[in-house]
């Protein structure tokens, strides 16, 4: 995933500037953004604090790790069952 120019803290600060009576056109020009980017940020991060957003990012990372762990264990379990099935068929002969 592409790393953006702005950190989450910077995005929240820009959104807070708009909430404190800055005009959107001024903010967009000052920070070199497009209107679409600003409104996308506003819909995604609007009303959230930096602490909340960092917690969400931490939870996403932990979730990704746990999903990978489940996938690895599932693959290992499947391989073990396959080996046991093959050994059982050899013993029956």
TrEMBL record:
UniProt cross-references to InterPro entries, sorted A to Z: Homeodomain-like_sf, Transposase_8, Transposase_8_domain
A Pfam family annotated for this UniProt entry: HTH_Tnp_1
The protein, known as: Transposase
Source species: Hymenobacter negativus
Highest taxon of the lineage: Bacteria
